[in-house]
C-alpha cells in the first residue's frame, strides 16, 4: 500500500537530520526510523486513492437514488392522503 521508496526517503532524511556527533549512528538510526514508520503506518486503516474515489462514486449514486426514492415516497404519501371523490 505504501511506496517503500518514500519510507526509505523519509527514514534517510530523519537520519541525516541527526546532529554531527551522532552521525556514526546514522545507518542504525535510518533502519530504526524505517521500521518505526512501517509499523506505525501499517496500523492505520488507510485506503488507496483509487479505492476512495470508487467508494465516493458509489456513495454519490446511492445518495441520488435515495433522493429519488424520497421524492417518490413523498408523492405517493400525498396521493394517499388526498381526499377522494
Written overview of the protein:
Residues 52-79 form a coiled coil. It comes from Natronospira elongata. Belongs to the UbiK family. Required for efficient ubiquinone (coenzyme Q) biosynthesis. UbiK is probably an accessory factor of Ubi enzymes and facilitates ubiquinone biosynthesis by acting as an assembly factor, a targeting factor, or both. This is Ubiquinone biosynthesis accessory factor UbiK. This protein starts with a helix and ends with a helix. Helices cover 75% and strands 0% of the residues. The chain is built from three helices and no strands. The longest helix is centred in the last third of the chain and has 33 residues, at 49-81. The radius of gyration is 28 Å and the shape is rod-shaped. The protein has two domains: 1-46; 47-85. With 85 residues, it is mainly α.
Amino acid at each position: 500500500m505504501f511506496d517503500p521508496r518514500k519510507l526509505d526517503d523519509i527514514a534517510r532524511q530523519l537520519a541525516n537530520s541527526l546532529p554531527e556527533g551522532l552521525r556514526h549512528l546514522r545507518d542504525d538510526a535510518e533502519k530504526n526510523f524505517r521500521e518505526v514508520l512501517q509499523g506505525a503506518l501499517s496500523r492505520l486503516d488507510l485506503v488507496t486513492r483509487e479505492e476512495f474515489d470508487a467508494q465516493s462514486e458509489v456513495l454519490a449514486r446511492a445518495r441520488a437514488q435515495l433522493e429519488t426514492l424520497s421524492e417518490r415516497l413523498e408523492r405517493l404519501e400525498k396521493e394517499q392522503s388526498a381526499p377522494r371523490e
